[in-house]
């Protein structure tokens, strides 16, 4: 017997609500580490406010932020799973149901292509009209399907960057460039401390996909030496939570390195997630 579309629809809706209303254990652990090393009283106050807000949101199942984000879906489909087009439709329906329950902010722009760019026809009043982009799909062993929902807020998107880096055959060159992008972004991002997500690939599409995978699956409780190095370089910039100064501008860094092209260039996608992100939740069905 195949996977029920109803089961997928409900699981997706639950994942969206959980992503939008609660911190992951990893994000809480990152804040706990930050509170241990921060010495600036104003910055400590700011981070405690983030945690208090998260406690209230989770307890009352309310959005972590008034910007409830654009939902992104990352699928991991077992090679033995009976999974098809109807299930993809059920995921889309589950996203809509989750946005109604959370509730999501009504921010779908109405109109044709030109009108949507100009935002001349206003907004839909229905939060469920915020549709997700195309899904990311990966094959995994087994017969089950894992669905990860990410909610991406607007502030980090404004400051995100996908661009080429001339690596000069040195990892340090890439690290320094990524860290500099991060320093500039956290200075402009209102809601810090941030989590920096980094994807390094051969094309802009691949680098951005790798960055999103880092957000969806990266481990905030265990940092690699490379991730820790980037975090320390950005924190040395001294911006601090909410720009108040201090030791912690960045809670952690999530790096995902994919295949690389034989050339002098690496494509990097860097997103400084705000202090409530990554907003993510994963469910498994089958």
Summarize the structure.
The chain has 286 residues and is α/β, with parallel strands linked by helices.
Describe the overall structure.
The protein has 286 residues and is α/β, with parallel strands linked by helices. The protein has one domain. Helix content is 43%, strand content 21%. It is built from 9 helices and 8 strands. It has a 4-stranded mixed sheet with strand order 2-1-3-8, with helices on both faces. Helix 1 (5-21) runs parallel beside helix 4 (85-101), helix 2 runs antiparallel to helix 3 and helix 7 (171-188) packs across helix 9. The relative contact order is 0.20. The mean pLDDT is 97.
Spans with pLDDT under 50 lasting ≥5 residues? none
- The mean pLDDT is 97
Strands ordered across the widest β-sheet: 2-1-3-8
Element pattern in H and E: HHHEHHEEHEHEHHEEE
Overall strand count = 8
Rg is 19 Å
Mass-distribution shape: globular
- Please state the structural category: alpha/beta
Percent of residues in β-strands: 15-25%
What is the total number of structural domains? 1
Distance between the termini: 10 Å
Q: How many distinct helices?
A: 9
